[in-house]
Each structure stands twice: as C-alpha cells, then as structure tokens.
Amino acid sequence: MQQHTGSAVAIVTGAASGMGRATAMTLAKDGWKILALDLVAGTFQGPDGEIEIVSVDVADRVSIKNAIDSYVAQTGASIEAVVNVAGVYPPSTLADFTTESFRKIFDINVLGVLNVTAEAVSHMERGGSVVNFASVDAFSVSPGQLLYGASKAAVVMLTKELALELAPRNIRVNAIAPGWVRTPGNETTGRMDEASKSIPLKRVAEPEEIARWVSILTGTDASFMTGETIVLSGGDVMR
Ligand SMILES: NC(=O)c1ccc[n+]([C@@H]2O[C@H](COP(=O)([O-])OP(=O)(O)OC[C@H]3O[C@@H](n4cnc5c(N)ncnc54)[C@H](O)[C@@H]3O)[C@@H](O)[C@H]2O)c1
To answer: CA distances (Å), 104 to each of 87, 119, 170, 173, in order?
Structure first.
C-alpha cells in the first residue's frame, strides 16, 4: 500500500462503476481524500465513511471546472492526483460508424481526459500525478473497435505530451492499458468468458488488480516514472 497522509485530494472520474469505483476505494484506503466524478451522481461506502459522487460530463469542460473549483473553494483542498478512468467502448466499424458515434467516443475518451486534466492541474501547485486509462486496444488491433482503439491510441500519445508539458511543474503523467477486466461495463459485452480462454493467465482481471497500479503510479514508488503506459492484460497483449 502507498500510504498517503494529510489532506491531499485525488480526483477520480468514472467513479460510479468498475475500475473507477475500485480506484476510488483503493486510493481512499491509501489515505487520499477522493473527489469522485461521474455522469451518475450518488454515494458509496468508502473505508472512512460515505464518498459522494459529483455529477459531471467529462466532455463538458464547464461542468468539470465548476465541480473542481467549487470543491476546492469549499474544502481548501490540495489536489495532488487525477485519475481519468471514465470512458466508453461501444463497437464501431467503417461500415457503421456515424459522426455522432465518432464525436461521442472521442469527446468522452480523449477530450474528457484533456478537460479534467486541464482544470485539475490549475489547482496542483504542489505537483502530483495524473493517471490516464488507455487500453490494450491502443496497441493491438481489436475487431469491431475502430473508433475505440483510435481513441485509446490518442490517450497513449496525450500521456506522453502531457508528461513533457507538466514535468517542469513536477506533475507526472502515466497511463494504464488494461486488457479484459471484470467490470459492469464489460459484462454487457457478453464476451468475457470466451475471451478468458485465450488469455495466457486464463482469466480476466478483477478491477482491484488494476486499481493497485493506480496506487503505485500515484505513490512515491513511481516518483521517477512519467510518460509511460503500463499494459495489464494477463499476457494477452505483449509489447
Ligand atoms: N473493462 C475493461 O475490460 C477495459 C479494458 C481496457 C480499458 N478499459 C477502460 O477503462 C476505463 C473504465 O472501464 P470500466 O469497464 O471500469 O467502465 P464502466 O463502463 O464499468 O464504467 C465507466 C464509468 O464512466 C462513466 N462515464 C461514462 N461517460 C461519462 C462521461 N461523459 N462523464 C463522466 N463519466 C462518464 C459511467 O457512468 C461509468 O460509471 C474506461 O476508460 C475503459 O475504456 C476498460
């Protein structure tokens, strides 16, 4: 565990479900205060009491700015970590994509990362860490994931560019590229059991196994790592 003490705040998007929820729980156990963001508002039980999820659309920069600015104004919090987990992965091909599906996938998966990071780093005077969620589909072609794969490849490159831009402010930027993970969003694909047969470790990951790496990347063990994307796929994709 990367024990974190004090009043440092970690922003976690996509915190209502899957790896976003697991990340919020793991970082809260590490001692971070959590600003949980998701389209879906609500609360969930954290290790030290309820965590409120503030409703935002990551594609809408104004809603992000309002949520972060008002949280900082109310709490005087020091933001020191940002974890961009929110994302969508509907299938698409050249034959069926539309302008709307392109905009939706890129607005949430790519513009969303930029919006949240830009508004958060304006409060990160003490430096810190950003962790973006890419996918193995950024590196390995996945049938029927035309736009999703391209959006996650963009996240990998944004991670490098942002790492360079934010290094002078002592803000590290890294990414995680998961393979198959047992999340509510992934359950809806109905393909997990079949997919696990061809994964060398013969299973999909649990969300908590991915969240442990967010803990490492936001902690001191990763203090000299920036601009990297870590693949966690049980051997499904090797680079
Ligand atoms: N599940 C996997 O196997 C897998 C594999 C590789 C990468 N990923 C990536 O990991 C991330 C998390 O995946 P998951 O399976 O845990 O997701 P999930 O579908 O279980 O949850 C995603 C969350 O993001 C939120 N969200 C969606 N659009 C939003 C928006 N516009 N603004 C704010 N919140 C929004 C949803 O409400 C939901 O709570 C995504 O970026 C996904 O692309 C997932």
So the answer is: 10, 21, 32, 24
Q: What six digits make up the tokens of 165?
A: 């831009």
Instruction: Note whether residue 3 is domain-resident.
Output: no
User: Which pTM value belongs to this model?
Assistant: 0.97
C-alpha 198 to ligand 1 mean position (Å) = 23
Span of 29-38, 165-174, 181-190 with lowest mean pLDDT: 181-190
Catalytic residues: 148
Which residues, judged by CB distance below 6 Å to any ligand atom, belong to the binding site of ligand 1?
13-14, 16-20, 38-40, 56-59, 85-89, 108, 133, 135, 178, 180-181, 183-186
pLDDT-derived band at 185, boundaries 50, 70, 90: confident
Rounded distance, CA 229 to CA 110, Å?
15
Query: Quick check: is 2 in a domain?
Result: no
> For atom 7 of ligand 1, which residue has the closest CA?
135
**Cα-based distances in Å from 53 to 45, 56, 116, 153, 185:** 11, 9, 15, 28, 18
Q: Per the domain annotation, does 238 fall within a domain? A: no
